[in-house]
Amino acid sequence: MKITIPLSALFLLFTANVFSQTLADLKLKAKEIPKGYAANDGQICVTPQACNFYTDIETYSNIVGTVKSKQIQSFKNRADSGSIMYFEFDHVFKGDRFLQGLLWGKDGQPTDEHPEEYLVKGKFLIIWSFHPDSPIKEKSEAKIEAILNKI
Asked: What is the pTM of this model?
């Protein structure tokens, strides 16, 4: 007796992983952390706005949507420190304009004083609270964009 699997079932099996990304998949693993950096508990934000957004996300839920889960990674080395904040929303993130104003004020883009950057892809929001030339931020951005561009 020969067992056959419909082609549509195989397609669903292989594509399920692409659409089932989790925050854990996006986080930097120990082997991906650049030399000289150490993981740090808690929040280390360049400016308080990013950490306040992470801490009080429920306050903004009527503007940005309801958070399904959130996680943070913080890192330090002698010359650099900061946090990466990961959010997964119940639905597509809808607070782009609000977040720009919160993080950057009237400038509407990162500045030396407010260098945070973020990426939105569907239900995912990632905020990097590091200075622009941060090696750990660059490593994280490359990983996250590679993963989320598959969606």
From this structure: 0.85
